[in-house]
Amino acid sequence: MAEKILELENVKTHFPVYSGFILKHQTGTVKAVDGVNLHLEKGEALGLVGESGCGKSTLARSITQLIPPTDGVIQFKDKTLNDLSSEQLKKVRTDLQMIFQDPYASLNPRMTVFDTLAEPLIAHNRTKRKNTSQEVSTLMEKVGLSPRLMRKYPHEFSGGQRQRIAIARALALNPSIIVADEPVSALDVSIQAQILNLLSKLRKEFDLSIIFIAHDLSVVKHISDRIAVMYLGKIVEIGDAIDIIENPRHPYTQALVSAIPVPDPEREKARKRTVLLGDPPSPINPPSGCSFHPRCLYATEECAKITPALAPTGKNHSAACIRIDEIGNPSAP
């Protein structure tokens, strides 16, 4: 058994909804993350996929405690993150870093690359000031940037270069885990491939564990050992990456897989597409029973009454659907 470095138990992150201008009162709750059970093994890359609004980014921020979860337990190594004070959390965050979706928004436009990369090293006493320039140069070289660019500002770089700077900043304190929140979604396709290859290389070099968040399964499958599929705040399927792509069991996962283009025109033409009905429901008022049933092609009256739990469907593969045994794989060629 591989060592579990991060474990989530029934994690919920809810946001109250208020009405009124002067006399505010709560009228509802946005259930962004609603009972997630998940673990990350040492050295593993776990892909987290789902439509926009399913709660992926909120879960990422709950893991890093940028948004404290409403309920549940997040265990990182031997520490329960929910129970830590601000000072204790500051120390833990050196080992748990995040890469954000928009590198331009996450980098301070008033700080040079040198200042951006030197700040965590100095703040956490990881270097002497006389060695800072060398440390920053090394970090830049690790992510494929020339050290001669360290005195430039973020606006002087391309989108791909800015994301490399963000990756270098995440690596500065030599963390165990990096949570990458859609790090390539704002980049051109050719640049996406470069960033994915860079993350794969750095993962092996630094023995990193990575949670890689995206809405595109074709991107996630290239970097992930396992894939978790999220829908309306819940994990609906999880398993080995190859198994999820080749043998999706949940109807929602089947729809995501069927949307991945196949580079063979004949196979693409012969393949059956799974088209979802309607739009995702509101997390303020999620459907009863299985949250996916209003859009599911296989839904029955029973699906609206029973909330399915993740159950094994094969080796290292689980899905949350009461009709798993009756559903084939329409996305297969």
Return the average pLDDT rounded to an integer.
90
Number of strands: 12
Q: Describe the biggest sheet?
A: 8 strands, mixed
- Tell me the Rg in angstroms: 21 Å
Order of helices and strands: EEEHEEHEHHHHEHEHEEHHHEE
Please tell me what the overall shape is.
globular
**Strand composition percent:** 15-25%
Low-confidence stretches: none
Query: N- to C-terminal separation?
Result: 34 Å
Count of DSSP-assigned helices: 11
Helix content: 25-40%
The largest beta-sheet arranges its strands as 6-7-8-3-9-10-12-11
Summarize the structure in words.
This protein has 333 residues and is α/β, with parallel strands linked by helices. Helix content is 29%, strand content 24%. The chain contains 11 helices and 12 strands. A hairpin with a 2-residue loop joins strand 9 (226-231) and strand 10. Helix 4 (113-123) crosses helix 5 and helix 6 runs parallel beside helix 7. It is globular. It starts with a strand and ends in a 14-residue tail after the last strand.
Write the layout of secondary structure elements.
Layout lengths: L3 E16 L5 E17 L3 E5 L6 H8 L7 E6 L2 E2 L5 H7 L3 E4 L3 H4 L6 H11 L8 H11 L16 H13 L5 E5 L7 H18 L2 E6 L2 H4 L5 E6 L2 E7 H6 L4 H8 L6 H6 L40 E4 L2 E3 L14
Parallel strand pairs: 3-8, 3-9, 6-7, 7-8
Antiparallel strand pairs: 1-2, 1-4, 4-5, 9-10, 10-12, 11-12
Helix pairs in contact: 4-5, 6-7
